[in-house]
Write a structure and sequence with these properties.
Elements lengths: L4 H9 L9 H5 E11 L2 E5 L1 H14 E14 L2 E12 L7 E13 L2 E11 L16
Parallel strand pairs: 1-6
Antiparallel strand pairs: 1-2, 3-4, 4-5, 5-6
């Protein structure tokens, strides 16, 4: 029995990127395209770019944790909303929230094929920390 698109996306994001060397092979389609809008602007990534990014993540962080708030499935498309927390090599005792993400993935052949992602750095007012409760609306 094959996995649903939602199970595939959740499986990818639940992997230990720092220690699992098979993550890309297991979950990333060889023809992947990730279109990423961030504070740096628009980035279009393919498999070689993702390999380089994973190498940099492994070089920079001693721990990487993801907190998911939403995972929605519509056929072979999955939307996921999440926040990354890291521990750096320079300060391994302190966990820092670094960014919020929303990604929409198309799954093809049981792997992540086309992605559209938006990210924003963590700010002092953050919906995952409860600090938004103090904001007057």
């Amino acid at each position: 029995m094959s996995k649903s698109a939602k199970e595939i996306v959740k499986g990818f994001y639940n992997r230990d990127f720092l220690n699992d060397h098979d993550t890309l092979e297991d979950y990333i389609h060889p023809e992947i395209v990730l279109i990423w809008n961030s504070t740096e602007g628009l980035t279009i990534m393919r498999i070689a770019d993702l390999v380089d990014m994973f190498k940099e993540i492994k070089r920079t962080y001693v721990d990487l944790r993801m907190e998911t708030s939403h995972v929605l499935e519509d056929g072979n498309h999955v939307t996921i909303r999440y926040k990354y927390y890291v521990r750096t090599i320079e300060n391994p005792d302190e966990e820092l929230g670094i960014a919020h993400f929303i990604a929409i993935w198309e799954v093809k052949d049981g792997k992540l094929f086309r992605g559209h992602q938006i990210s924003q750095p963590v700010m002092s007012i953050d919906d995952t920390s409860g600090s938004y409760d103090k904001v007057k609306v």
